[in-house]
């Protein structure tokens, strides 16, 4: 079997394969034997149909077509193995199948051409010393104070209040009855589910629809008040969204929170530490590490964006299709986690539209991936079995019990190799660290400037059109 290889655009490899006379004859005989075993012809038992009868009933063209199809498939598998071709799949027959069938004669050579997707060649410009801008996330000591204050509130003791009126942060026990105001006039109608007794509510912003908590503040135990409270336009219950309600509220009990002292006893109650100083030190370390991780993630994101701009690679269709599958699968999983029925949402038409819409994202993802893998290859970076096992140990509580270990190892090795490439780039990059929010503000300003320029251009075109119209309709005196 003679094989000629030719590089084709879009990361394809062309193969011209010449089938030997022996293979040609063997394929034909095998198809006849297979048809003979399967054919059901009156007057003959299966497997006992004479060759001449089989050829007459089945037709020579049908048998030749089956033989050519088998030849193509079997030869491709053999060529890929013998020539060590890193085929990605997506074989395409370049030759006309009908012409191959018409040319095919058992015992005579047959030549056909196919193309197959192969890993692309990657060209990468100088990637040492990339200049990037990234936002630096700084640890704020106030985060520790806020965390401790929230834990204090959780540990608070509730003390009954008798004399004073309700204040913010109190706990109120109330009875209430709600009614919907009839827009057309008439008596307010009962609010479905809008009635409760001994209802406990914390008098904090956001605990109920706007105006409800605010209306309770200032009331004393035993007092009743009627509140007009509008439901917001985006209220989840569409039947109530935008409507106005009247709530009659009676305060039955009031309690205030008595917060524990911020001391060693408190630290022992909310953590495994014995002293408040130890707890603070641990929290400071955690928040600092979190800030460092976020800063590192920002730098890596900027590096990935930078290196994607200097890579040249033709992405084969097979890999684009696989990446599109991944994007849609992740999207479906996220929607399913939100309780959305993805089977109804993802119809044949919507899937086709989403694949088309997601294609630029898929290509960008692959370009970034190939760029990082190329850095790893050029710099001889690698991931050890011990490192993969350590990562699996970190993830073990989140992995399903029936996880495919080989696929997991392969995925983790690829991901960790990219991480090493990013670390390598980071060590050698020229990084300008910016205050948090800088890049977002710059992007917003640029978008506003572009919108203003576009509006001005549209206004100018409109004015020009008016001038032309006037000149066209103005008659000389």
From TrEMBL:
Domain PPIase FKBP-type, chain residue ranges per copy: 169-263
Annotated localization: Cytoplasm
Source species of the chain: Laspinema olomoucense D3b
Disordered: annotated segments: 456-477
Similarity comment: family membership: Belongs to the FKBP-type PPIase family. Tig subfamily.
Location (main, coarse): cytoplasm
GO molecular function: peptidyl-prolyl cis-trans isomerase activity
Name used for this protein in its record: Trigger factor
């Amino acid at each position: 079997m003679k094989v000629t290889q030719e590089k084709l655009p879009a990361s394809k490899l062309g193969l011209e394969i010449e089938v030997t006379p022996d293979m040609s004859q063997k394929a034909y005989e095998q198809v006849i034997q297979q048809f003979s075993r399967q054919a059901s012809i009156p007057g003959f038992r299966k497997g006992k149909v004479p060759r001449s009868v089989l050829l007459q009933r089945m037709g020579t063209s049908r048998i030749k077509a089956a033989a050519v199809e088998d030849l193509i498939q079997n030869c491709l598998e053999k060529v890929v193995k013998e020539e060590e071709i890193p085929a990605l799949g997506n074989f395409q027959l370049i030759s006309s199948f009908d012409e191959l069938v018409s040319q095919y004669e058992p015992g005579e050579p047959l030549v056909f051409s196919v193309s197959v997707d192969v890993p692309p060649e990657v060209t990468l410009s100088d990637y040492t010393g990339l200049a990037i801008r990234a936002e630096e996330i700084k640890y704020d000591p106030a985060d520790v104070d806020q965390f401790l204050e929230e834990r204090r509130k959780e540990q608070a003791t509730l003390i009954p209040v008798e004399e004073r009126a309700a204040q913010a942060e109190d706990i109120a026990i109330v009875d209430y009855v709600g009614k919907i105001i009839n827009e057309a006039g008439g008596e307010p109608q009962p609010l479905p589910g809008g009635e409760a007794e001994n209802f406990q509510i914390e008098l904090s912003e956001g605990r109920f629809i706007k105006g409800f908590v605010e209306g309770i503040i200032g009331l004393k135990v035993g007092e009743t008040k009627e509140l007009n409270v509008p439901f917001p336009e985006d209220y989840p219950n569409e039947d109530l969204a935008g409507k106005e309600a009247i709530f009659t509220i009676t305060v039955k009990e009031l309690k205030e929170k008595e917060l524990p002292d911020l001391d060693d006893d408190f630290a022992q109650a909310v953590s495994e530490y014995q002293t408040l100083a130890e707890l603070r030190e641990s929290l400071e370390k955690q928040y600092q590490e979190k800030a460092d991780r976020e800063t590192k993630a920002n730098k890596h994101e900027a590096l990935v964006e930078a290196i994607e701009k200097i890579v040249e690679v033709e992405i084969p269709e097979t890999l684009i299709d696989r990446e599109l599958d991944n994007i849609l699968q992740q999207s479906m999983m996220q929607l399913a986690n939100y309780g959305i029925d993805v089977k109804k949402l993802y119809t044949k038409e919507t899937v086709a539209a989403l694949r088309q819409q997601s294609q630029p994202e898929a290509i960008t993802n692959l370009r970034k991936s190939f760029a990082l893998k190329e850095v790893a290859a050029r710099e001889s970076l690698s991931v050890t079995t011990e490192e993969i096992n350590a990562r699996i140990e970190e993830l073990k509580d989140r992995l399903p019990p029936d996880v495919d270990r080989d696929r997991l190892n392969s995925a983790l090795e690829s991901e960790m190799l990219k991480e090493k490439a990013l670390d390598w780039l980071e060590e050698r990059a020229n990084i300008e660290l910016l205050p948090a929010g800088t890049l977002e503000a710059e992007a917003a300003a640029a978008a506003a400037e572009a919108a203003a320029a576009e509006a001005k251009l549209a206004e100018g075109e409109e004015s020009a059109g008016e001038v032309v119209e006037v000149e066209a309709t103005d008659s000389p005196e």
